[in-house]
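User: Please fill in residues for this 135-position structure.
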């Protein structure tokens, strides 16, 4: 036969475990947030190519992920400037005009990809840049 003391200890243990699981699950729930920042596209090799227009783009993205990941992404990106370079970050090096899908470029960017969020939309959706040979 179990004593009242043992039953209370069991109840307290089960309650503590339930609270820990609940807090963990609350941190993993799916959340969406819009984050605004600036994007600068630069030449990866200024001795060979130059990137013209636009020099800076005011962008916003809608991020989806766990609450913790979305908060981390917001802290890392909100109000900041992200520098993307041609020859890296999904930006071509070939001279000419290019239409870049901002969502795709940012999703693969080393600054955004490790944050653990999915970029569902980006505004503007397309950035037009012109890459010209240096010289």
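Assistant: Residues filled in for all 135 positions:
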């Amino acid at each position: 036969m179990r004593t009242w003391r043992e039953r209370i200890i069991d109840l307290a243990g089960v309650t503590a475990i339930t609270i820990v699981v609940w807090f963990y699950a609350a941190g993993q729930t799916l959340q969406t947030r819009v984050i605004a920042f600036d994007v600068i596209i630069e030449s990866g090799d200024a001795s060979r190519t130059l990137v013209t227009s636009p020099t800076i783009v005011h962008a916003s993205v809608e991020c989806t992920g766990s609450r913790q990941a979305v908060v981390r992404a917001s802290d890392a990106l909100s109000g900041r400037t992200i520098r993307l370079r041609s020859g890296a970050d999904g930006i071509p090096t070939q001279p000419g005009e290019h239409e870049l899908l901002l969502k795709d470029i940012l999703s693969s960017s080393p600054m955004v990809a490790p944050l653990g969020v999915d970029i569902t939309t980006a505004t503007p959706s397309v950035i037009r840049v012109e890459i010209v040979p240096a010289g």
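For context: The chain has a mean pLDDT of 87.
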